Hints:
Layout: E1 2-7, H1 13-21, E2 35-40, H2 44-53, E3 57-59, E4 62-67, E5 93-100, H3 107-140, H4 143-160, H5 172-177, E6 189-195, H6 204-207, E7 219-224, H7 226-233, H8 237-247, H9 253-265, E8 267-273, E9 277-284, H10 289-296, H11 298-302, E10 304-311, H12 312-318, H13 321-326, E11 331-333, E12 343-349
Parallel strand pairs: 1-4, 1-5, 3-9, 5-6, 6-7
Antiparallel strand pairs: 2-4, 8-9, 10-11, 10-12
Helix pairs in contact: 1-7, 1-9, 3-4
Amino acid sequence: MKIGIIGLPQSGKTTIFNAASGKAEAVGDYSKASHRAIIKVPDERVDRLSELAQPKKTTFAEIDYLDICAFTGKGKASEGAIDMPDELRYADALMVVIRCFGSDCTPERNFNLFIDEMILSDQVIIERNIEKKDRTAKLTGNKEFEREVAVFRKCLASLENAQPLSEAGLDEAEKKLIKNYAFLSLKPLLVVLNIDEDDIGNESRWTDVFADKVVPNVREFVPICGKIEMEIGQLDGDDSLEFLNDLGIERPAMEILIQKSYSLLGLISFFTVGDPEVRAWTISKGAVAPKAAGTIHSDMERGFIRAEVIDYDDFDHYGSTHACKEAGKYRVEGKEYVMRDGDVVLVRFNI
């Protein structure tokens, strides 16, 4: 999973990056600096499975955070515009950091600015391609080009109405047809409201402002005090827990942002357990067993025979694959099986 973190100068974007990743990058108006961190996704279930199986290796799922250089407007400040770097298009989702501290903060304006720029960026790409695609479709009779043009027209109508593509009513087939264009306004957005320390415990002051802009599985808002969370991220485990308790913060920002990212992208985890390795794998909610097997290796999807499945809670209770079999907690599932979060899986395949 790759998350692109964006924000205006002085929004606390790199502070949030540090809080989310445990890094200690310099903060301030370093508009030309970009940072990257690949972090392991904390999961108590992986820890427990490793404790039981005692493998040679334990592998957690990972998130790739990319902290993009702050937007400066590049000479367009008088127009109130910003530039959207192409590297954002490679992200699975975008984390937009909005400053909600200081007497001069304008969170709604800044949020709308990003939405408008994503819309404009996508509109430019569509307008650049639609005429060419339409002409080619008419000359060649290529049905796929015709379908693509039809989707483009639907997208353009949405964008011209100041509506992001995530709200254009595209079905899965239409999204797949235009996937390679990586439109920014179609990406899920996790909007981080970077609040002041004084607002800890009173986060609704800011979430209420954006309540009507929440769209399940499309756009979510989470209030975080970046400054405090960055400080917590630099502490050892016991010290950080004590600090969190003193401030009345239930969970560190890293855990919150990971959980929100998984929820926003509709992702779940399954596990493989063996002597060589215990490993967490990330898949889309609703994925069938062969597709899940393909995340391990493409040959497994191609030659899929069956999946042998144990619920995590049963593995935790009985302690081993053998004990689960003895207790009747070992299932054989076929190609139509829809994976569930926490499945412990052994894939049988033949190529």
